[in-house]
UniProtKB/TrEMBL annotation:
Residues 2-258 form the ABC transporter domain. The lineage of its organism: Bacteria, Pseudomonadati, Pseudomonadota, Betaproteobacteria, Burkholderiales. InterPro entries: AAA+_ATPase, ABC_transporter-like_ATP-bd, ABC_transporter-like_CS, BCAA_Transport_ATP-bd_LivF, P-loop_NTPase. It comes from Pandoraea pneumonica. It comes from the Bacteria. Keywords: Amino-acid transport, ATP-binding, Cell inner membrane, Cell membrane, Membrane, Nucleotide-binding, Transport. Residues 108-132 are annotated as: Disordered. GO terms for molecular function: ATP binding; ATP hydrolysis activity; branched-chain amino acid transmembrane transporter activity. The keyword rRNA processing does not apply. This is ABC transporter ATP-binding protein.
Amino acid sequence: MLDLVDVKAGYGGARVLNGVTLRVEPGEIVAVLGRNGAGRSTLARAIMGQLPRQGEIRWQGKSLVSLAPHEIARLGIGYVPETRDVFGPLTVTQNLLLGQRGTHAPSRWWQRAGRRSEPEQAGQGVQGQASRPRALTLAQAFERFEELAPRRDAPSAALSGGEQQLLSLCRALMAGPDLLIVDEPTEGLAPRVVARIGRILTELRASGVAILLIEQKLSLALSCAQRVAVMGRGALVFEGTPGELAGADDIRAEWLEV
């Protein structure tokens, strides 16, 4: 369970989050909606340790507030950033192997990836550690994300925006996270890719993964989330079911509609 209590964060001296309290249970998608500048992406970055923050952030009872991003990732937390952060010169396969190691930072290690044996590449753990139960092998990754299979040896910079988003999502799943934080996964994408991402998130939820979805598309949130929260001016202004939000005309008019 992800448990946030009175979380505050910002950039420099400017506070963006003004005390956010939220919970995400295993097997649940919680969508955080709001206009640009509401603090949604800042919330994701604060959870992942990319910003100084105050308050309580706990995952499975363990505090994350004093941990570095790589330490947070190793606790079984996957992160798909708004910027996708695929490494353009690296191939699709090399990007996925980085995810297998539970890191988003390239190193000299990836240069040796092509010379490693297939069993080692296929997800037999990192530095002798056992793989997490949900971890994907390369074969499983290309089977689940079949769009990426024909591009496995292509540099990631050559992929379309939709393919790069799928690569970023697949990379986050390589290490088998129990919690997935997905920031604006559908921005600027074609409807068919949006629908594909919605199906992937729904399948993950059904398998027991806890998902915090930062999203601007109300339609996606209403179709796949079990609970929705609306942010405004760095705080939650609404929390409830998709049905309750659909009936809250005042909330949608004031905090969501352009």
